[in-house]
Design brief:
Layout (H helix, E strand, L loop, with lengths): L4 H13 L5 E3 L3 H9 L4 E3 L12 H10 L2 E3 L2 H12 L6
Parallel strand pairs: 1-2, 2-3
């Protein structure tokens, strides 16, 4: 994702003007926030932001509100969910 909101907005406008989908990859909650506010149409792997991989609730709400498509890595989500759900002594 672009490093500034202004750049992200401009890029999104150009991509949309060309009739294309504005797709982004993000690696931190802040870059995910920038992508959402810049008008991204598709978020690649938004579940993988940050060391604990938890997406802040306010960002989930914005993604839903703006109806942004997300490409989720189901294997990593399943692994992380399993690690949180299964007690360590059962692993």
């Amino acid at each position: 994702m672009p490093h500034t909101q202004k750049f992200g907005q401009a890029l999104g406008e150009e991509v949309h003007a060309a009739g294309k989908i504005y797709e982004t990859h993000t690696a931190t909650p802040e870059s995910l926030r920038l992508a959402i506010e810049a008008g991204a149409d598709l978020l690649q792997h938004p579940e993988s932001v940050g060391p604990d991989r938890d997406v802040p609730d306010d960002l989930i709400a914005r993604i839903k509100e703006k109806q942004i498509f997300c490409a989720i890595l189901t294997a990593s989500v399943s692994f992380v969910s399993r690690q949180k759900a299964v007690p360590k002594h059962w692993s």
